[in-house]
Write a structure and sequence with these properties.
This protein has eight helices and ten strands. The strands form three sheets. A six-stranded mixed beta sheet has the order 3-4-8-7-6-5, with helices on one face. With 310 residues, it is of the alpha+beta class. The two termini are 49 Å apart. The chain is extended, with a radius of gyration of 27 Å. Helix 2 runs parallel beside helix 3.
Length: 310
């Protein structure tokens, strides 16, 4: 008769088969599946009752949401703002290869994700393993240019070995990423705070020639425009292209800065499009119009739809 291997749960102190302590990704855990499911239920219930519940996003959605917020706050072509900063919070849903990683590696990848979105660099400072809830790890990353990381420069006593290098410029930005990883629910809570959007480590001016080319390619996406220009302009960044593209788009199409529907209505009238439904003053706003394609469609006798299903 074979003996069954038992293990004691660190939370309820009950003894169960070792299979009760294996996560979905095959990790060996200290708490049993019953305690983990109970903790997950409490977590979900708590957040469902929370009026300020954070939005749950997937990897690429986090990057896009944060980048869009930076673009909105940035007051110049470098997406800087000396008066206002950014506060950004969300819950990242872990999936794919991220589920197999250790908490420390997950935190590094999340910090890199934030870097790609806001253009700053972040340095690991410290971490904490929750003593109240098993499987919750919190990591802190500081902006590489924040004043808190400044150190008093030390000169080598040997004059021949001294190098007059340029030190990094520091700011009172209080830039901080707080990353809380719950290995039980596979959710990562991200909090980003940057009091000001200061100058990034490197930046280069956009010449009038490049601005004119961006304006010529205004009907392309910023990503495609950047591909057209990056080989001849290695110092140009995609964020700069996006900033100037957005600026030219506004000049081209915005007719009213205070009311989006009114702006669209004025633009449609300018292009002689037929407006069939409109209400831009009431509680429920709407705008309906017909494009020239409608006339072509009304005379067509047959429509073929090619659908690809996965």
């Amino acid at each position: 008769m074979t003996s069954i291997s038992k293990k004691q749960c660190s939370k309820c102190y009950q003894h169960f088969d070792t299979n009760f302590f294996t996560s979905k990704t095959g990790r060996d855990l200290k708490t049993c599946i019953n305690c983990r499911e109970q903790a997950a239920t409490v977590y979900r219930t708590h957040h469902l009752n929370d009026k300020d519940q954070l939005e749950q996003l997937y990897w690429n959605d986090v990057k896009k949401k944060l980048y869009d917020k930076i673009v909105e706050i940035g007051s110049n072509e470098y997406l800087e703002n000396k008066e206002n900063g950014v506060l950004f919070s969300c819950i990242l849903i872990m999936e794919n290869e991220l589920l197999k990683e250790e908490p420390c590696n997950i935190s590094k990848q999340v910090a890199k994700l934030v870097e790609q979105a806001d253009g700053y660099y972040y340095i690991y400072k410290e971490h904490y393993l929750s003593k109240k809830s098993d499987g919750i790890y919190t990591y802190w990353y500081y902006c590489s240019q924040c004043q808190q990381l400044a150190k008093k420069p030390r000169k080598n006593e040997d004059l021949n070995k001294q190098r007059d290098r340029e030190y990094i410029k520091r700011f009172d930005c209080n830039g901080l990423i707080t990353i809380s990883i719950n290995m039980n629910t596979f959710l990562v809570t991200i909090h980003l705070k940057h009091d000001i959007l200061h100058k990034r480590p490197e930046r280069y001016a956009v010449s009038d020639t490049i601005k004119e080319k961006i304006k010529q390619y205004i009907n392309f996406t910023p990503k495609d425009i950047f591909r057209q220009l990056e080989q001849e302009n290695p110092d140009l960044t995609q964020k700069q292209v996006h900033a100037w593209w957005a600026n030219f788009i506004k000049q081209e199409y915005i007719r009213d800065k205070n009311n989006q529907l009114k702006s669209a209505k004025l633009l449609l009238e300018e292009y002689n499009y037929e407006i069939i439904l409109v209400n831009i003053e009431g509680e429920i706003n709407y705008l309906g119009f017909i494009t020239p394609f409608f006339e072509l469609l009304s005379t067509n006798k047959e429509i073929v739809v090619d659908a690809t299903c996965k």
